[in-house]
Amino acid sequence: MRVLLAIHHPLTQDMGAPGVTLALGRALRAQGCTVDYYSYSEAYPGELHHTALHGVRFPWKLAAHLTRVARDYDVLDVTTGDAWPWARAGRPGASRRHALVTRSHGLEHTLSERLRGDAREGKLHLSWKYPLYHGGFRLWEVAQTLRLADRSVLLNAEDAAYASERLGIPASKLSVIPHGLGEAFHGLPLPAPLAEGPLRLATVATFIQLKGREDVIAAAVRLHAQGLPFTLTLYGTGTPEPEVRAAFPPHLQSLLRVVPHYAHATLPALLAQEEVILFPSHTEGHGMGLVEAMASGLVPIATPVGVAPSIVHPGRTGFLVPIADVDALVEAVRALAADPSRRYALRRAAQAEVQRLTWPDIASRTRAVYEEVLRMRNASGK
User: Fold this and answer.
1) What pLDDT is stored for residue 48 in this prediction?
2) pLDDT tens, 22-42?
3) Which residues of 164-189 are buried (b: 16+ CB within 10 A; e: fewer)?
4) pTM score, whole prediction
5) One domain, residues 13 and 151
6) How far apart are CA 297 and CA 347, in angstroms?
7) Residue 199 DSSP one-character state
8) Does 195 share its domain with 317?
9) Any idea which UniProt keywords this protein has (predicted)?
10) Whose CA is closest to 87, among 143, 161, 148?
11) Which CATH number belongs to the domain containing residue 263 in this structure?
């Protein structure tokens, strides 16, 4: 099977959606598929810095590329919002036997609704530019691609429900397939109980409001005021350390450690001395940081977004707390701090829970979708 994976990002292993695209490609190749990529690297060769304008132009760059090469592929697997110009033009250059699949790394519509909701509540300021593209035209592009594709692959049930109920996409054209867990996170040794001392808390997320930044800060302030000994390390903030530290009160500075960037494969070693992952995100397509932290032996306290409801089982593998509920976040931390034996049992259970998320399995499920779509198109004579 010949597959083209197209994505509106530069391809790099150390970024979320690009990293999982490369992982999916490797897993498909291991199962006998021929896989090529089309990304910013091919659309904008030699350009190292990208802006929103590159995103606006990408669907048209892709359309020109597909017109030249589509006949070489059985499956065109394209990120949402990017294939609509080519599809609306009648899929020029494609062979009769082909499948157009669009893939979401987090549905833009559910993200937009969360952003607008937080803005209405005064938790977030949206630029006047937001409705022009990301909160406007881009949503139209995504909806168009979902309607024109033969099948849409979404990461979670919430996104699939939105696509079906709000955008009118037939449920038969929707498939939910999560991301896999990288090889570096499989088969890690069981976490050893750590020596007595402060509770070791961590986050693995960019330092932005949508990832629960203010909730983490408020919880840290409250826990310190209650006299709970803890440390807090923030991994992958994407924000320079001085800016992250400036967001916390001075009296918490000695408890913080900030790691703005890290090589993806080094994360298990970085997390080896942590115990609890705080993941109070307001919205997620998937949430690889949560999955990888659990694989590294951290017990999760997470909001029910993205993949969390399917892997964080309250009382068995961690805690689920409502979005923006600092009281619940603090209560969960205190419960873990009060019972070391339960904390360690949950760390082991969390690690075991995510081992089933393998890329070979995800590739097999993805190939099954491809094959089903190809059969349906052949049967319909399209």
Assistant:
1) 85
2) 999 999 999 999 999 999 999
3) beeeebeeebbbbbbbbbbebbeebe
4) 0.85
5) yes
6) 5
7) E
8) yes
9) Glycosyltransferase, Transferase
10) 148
11) 3.40.50.2000
